[in-house]
Amino acid sequence: MKNLVCIAFTAFVFTGCGNDNAAEQARLQQQRSVDSMALVMQQQQAEIAHQRAIDSMNAVVAAKEEETRAAKNSRVSRSSNSTTYVQSNAGRAETAAPAEAKRKGWSGAAKGAAIGAGVGALSGALIDDKKGRGAIIGGVAGAGIGAGTGAIIDGSKKKK
Description:
Blueprint: H1 2-80, E1 84-87, E2 93-96, H2 108-127, H3 131-159
Antiparallel strand pairs: 1-2
Helix pairs in contact: 2-3
């Protein structure tokens, strides 16, 4: 009988230890699941933060493009001196008030022609014996050369 009690006690001890090991394994498995879920949530939060940064950059770019379009439309409305239609963000057309024409001043070709005509007329009057004829010829030649030079300067400014 003593042997039977020892065998039963030994079986009970081994069975009890096995249950503790199974409980520990279940707890470790649960902790692994919690850790993996936390890692997934961190990755999702990082992706959301990354997407927010991209969205804010896209919003800045869109705002810059809208400013550029608005500036371009305002230049068009000033140059045409009439009412223009501008597409708003909401998708409806609005009328822009006609802007007052802004004086730009003389173009390079016009300045060159005026200066050239003056210098040519003065030079022609001084050089030619007949003052009137020299002034007319010099003025016409100077105006042509000055207008051509001014146009070339205007072209180089537009390229810049």
